[in-house]
Amino acid sequence: MRFRRGRWRHPQVDPTVTEFERAVAPLKRQEPSDAAGRRLVAQENDDRIQAEYGHEPLTTASVDHLVPAQGAPDVRVRVYWPGQDPAPPGSGLPVLVYCYGGGFTLGGVDWSAWDARLRRRARDAGVIIVAPDYAHAPEHRFPVQPEQCWAAFEWACEHADELGGSADRIAVGGASSGGNLAAVITLMNRERAGRPIRLQILENPALDLTIGHADMKGIGPAMPHVILEKAGRALVSQYLGPDRQLARDPHASPLLATSHEGLPPAVIFTAELDPLRGDGEAYARALSAAGVPVVALRFVSQTHESLGIPLPFAAGDFAHRAWVNEVARLRD
Question: 317 catalytic, yes or no?
């Protein structure tokens, strides 16, 4: 049998994603350039989009705690339970410490989209989610965020039983910058505590802040590579500050750690049209080479943000069910 070599075509965005972006464009106010103003307007935009297109908010149980962090401000931590009441102590449910995404500068558990997503995931997977509301850059810079997330992880492990969870069924996860922080937690745990983490589940994670693994191959001509790279470096600068050498610190760029041996099994979601695809897939290769069980799943025709679109479409629905399936296995 002979195979005819076809012409390579530039990847195209899922038409459903394009349709959604056009629909929400009138709901968005332009974000100002200053960090605080940009954050405020971005949250207002998020509220309007969720009100128009989001799922009905779930009435699942949640409660906030204030957790002290070593060398960093106290961090607010929100606990989500799968049901309408907190699980009784000793219920033995899995506990997932989850870090939201937002380029280290945006997002939080009070944002409509993140709160709704975490409630739905806790319910559908049947797990307790502990979500640190870590500080934003540039007002707070590295290593504040890793230390806050580490404090939240330690707190979750120490209080697992009284939350209705089990310290033997602990996992970490996160998206984008939150995926970075989740991966950093696994390194910190290897260095500091050696607690048994059953899973790290990362979505479009930013794992090399030198931008050395960013993959621009799938990005179309409408968004020049130089603009994307400049935007990425601007976010990194807000997070790390002027010392560019910090980008090589494994607690900033976990992909650049000297060794990945002994880290938890991983599931990594990437999107074809996301420059961070390069980070996620390189991390999968590094973990595999270190003998860590890993599965990497690339979503064709999807962008960095599209799998979180708050309405049912094929890729987003599958991503949610795949995430839930992997996390629910912690109950076994």
Answer: no
